[in-house]
Amino acid sequence: MEARDKISDIIEAYALRIRALGYPIVSKALEVWKSRIMSEDVDFTEKDVLFDEYLHLLADVELSKIPREDKNKLLQTLWKCGSEIEDVLVREGFIKPPYLFIGKKPRRLRHIVSPWLLLGLFLSFLLIGMSFSVISNFSNHETIEVNETIEVNPMICEHEVYWRYNFQRAIYCVFQGNTLKEVSKIAQSLKGKNELQTCHNILSLTAQFPYDPTREFRNDVFIQTPMETLQMRSGICSDFALLTVALLLDNNISPVYLLHVEFKRDIPGGGHAVAAVNINGTYYVLDQYPPPKPLYEFLSNFDGIKEISKVTIYEVDKNRGIKKIRILKAREYRNNPVPYFMLLLAFGIVWKKREDWIFI
């Protein structure tokens, strides 16, 4: 069968498809285009001449007031029609293809390598790259040992305005008074068979108290004492952290730790506060809701939501007082998974359009 007959059959088949979509006018235009290119005076070697009317037809469809979904179907069908015609012209030797050559035979990339193999290789590359990115995000920090005893002028603790708006001062002032005696009755009712069970019981209590978002976004975020949090039955992260520490200390779990987590691009003084304990060599974070979570699992999950810049760790001991013991500080260079997601998006577009674009 000659090239003209093959092209005629292709156009007729696609004209029927377009008519079935409910657009006989476009189908008729395709048939008119067929009649023009099938005339004997058309030189198939002049690709620009051959496809001039075809491109005009595509432009007319694109500019028409056809519903977007139908328009996409029409354009996709027309592109496939043009692609098959070009395949015929390449095989018959009328035009030079933008294809790869294996020997003397023009081949598209999908004819040489399985698309599924390409997809598998790409996903493997993507997952490996993202795994390195995740590891670097969670572990790429430096540890600064501080071991600094927290001392605050006792006069400051007598004036609430000086400590209720500063987390470090609040830690000192809250545990200098009768805090443990005030919460002792409730603390003893939460005592479990072991330290981990006690932690779980404490979190079961704080989980009953709703988080108060109205205080979080105020310019003057104040800090409640543990007893105030029990009375109000609500609070923010710093309130729950201090309450948790008080309940742990009264249950003779000591030392206890307070973590102040700061995020990049956060407001000054912002961040998140949680309590933590060391049980059998493993640090567990107690963040209002059960169960207790291992420290680095907690930080990894948080870092996946908001990028952590610094974590300050305080140690609260019933006998030795309060110390700032360690700072975990993120390094300046951190891998970013965004390029991998962008690459995945680009590959998805190419994969979706692989039948339409002639270079695939």
Defining key terms:
360 residues, 3 domains, alpha+beta, 9 strands, 7-stranded antiparallel sheet, single chain, C8orf32 fold
Notes on the protein architecture:
The protein has helices at residues 3-20, 24-37, 47-50, 52-63, 68-91, 109-112, 115-139, 154-158, 160-163, 167-174, 179-189, 195-206, 213-216, 226-232, 237-250, 295-303, 338-352, and strands at 100-102, 105-107, 141-149, 256-263, 272-279, 282-286, 293-294, 308-317, 321-330. By secondary structure, the chain is α+β, with helices and mostly antiparallel strands. Strands 3-9-8-4-5-6-7 form a 7-stranded antiparallel sheet, sandwiched between helices. A two-stranded antiparallel sheet has the order 1-2. Helix 4 packs antiparallel against helix 5 (68-91), helix 7 (115-139) packs antiparallel against helix 17 and helix 14 packs across helix 15 (237-250). The protein starts with a helix and ends in an 8-residue tail after the last helix.
Would you spell out the secondary-structure blueprint of this structure?
Layout: H1 3-20, H2 24-37, H3 47-50, H4 52-63, H5 68-91, E1 100-102, E2 105-107, H6 109-112, H7 115-139, E3 141-149, H8 154-158, H9 160-163, H10 167-174, H11 179-189, H12 195-206, H13 213-216, H14 226-232, H15 237-250, E4 256-263, E5 272-279, E6 282-286, E7 293-294, H16 295-303, E8 308-317, E9 321-330, H17 338-352
Antiparallel strand pairs: 1-2, 3-9, 4-5, 4-8, 5-6, 6-7, 8-9
Helix pairs in contact: 1-2, 1-5, 2-4, 4-5, 7-17, 11-15, 12-15, 14-15
